[in-house]
Prior knowledge:
alpha/beta, D-Maltodextrin-Binding Protein, domain 2, 5-stranded antiparallel β-sheet, two-stranded parallel ribbon
Amino acid sequence: MLKGLLIGTALTALTLGATMPVQAEESQPGKGVTLRPARATWNTGFFQEALVRRGLEELGYKVKKPKDLQNTIFYKSLTLGDLDYWTNGWFPMHNAQLPKNFYEKAGLYGYVVKAGGLQGYMISKKHADEFNIQSLDDFKRPEVKKAFDKNNDGKADLLGCPPGWACEQTNEHHLKSYDLGEHINILKPSYEAGMASELAAFKNGEPVFFYTWAPNWTIFKMKPGTDVVWINVPEIMPYKSQSEAVERMTVSGVEGAVSDPVKLGFVVSDVQIAANKKFIAENPAAKKFFEIFALPLADINEQNTRMNDGEKSPKDISRHVDQWIAKNQDKWQAWLAEARKAAKQ
Length: 345
């Protein structure tokens, strides 16, 4: 009896020893693979990058610290095979910044936020009402220019996009296309510092005029329709990179817009993951995770607001990731299960 029990115990141990490594391997299909990500220069994209990185790590991948890169440098590096992916693609807005052979070497996967890339110009609602401002064209009026002229150069001051951002070209295109060069001056500081200044001015009751986008903390701090409003461009005159998506430049149902629909002058973009095709072909688990990963716009806005309130260190962002995963365990585990399943096929 004792001999039989000992034999049975030994067999069980052998069975466990044989199956446990297999189970571990199945739960971590990326084990032994090191990934080279990049990250956008705008901090409102840091949260989704950190979440995707965490998911890949749970799948067994070793993920290097992401490189913060300008768009054009990243997309070129991706096609050269020097980097594997980033989560900060805005399409079709970024099309103009892609190298010619981009789609031969790389691709777009999933939708971090479908139609989540809303962009346009906002001004303080108080002053929009006071001066009856509906579009950029109203800044040709002397009284409007004077109200929004902060440096007394005779032009309204617009907080625009920093150098190197895709939207910088569109800002300049608008000034030229609508003959606004003599009426509006585009300021190009770092966006975070510029918006901090705009928020302080708003709290002091001063006029504010700025470019922004969603997801972004700005529309949490200054609520569309109550504090600020989206205004129109005079007419839709697409920049060359926008010509194939003109229908996505006029949008209905935008909260806090001065009109419905509103002519934003920017293409409503999909936020997507861009990745190297060779990397994707060799890593089906990562591909599947990219394809199914998605975030509610409200969750990104909420986290971005916390960052703007001072919780912006790597430790803070990691904590935000922990908290989001804890609140969304069913969804998170389902994503990981689908990715592991894809690795077996």
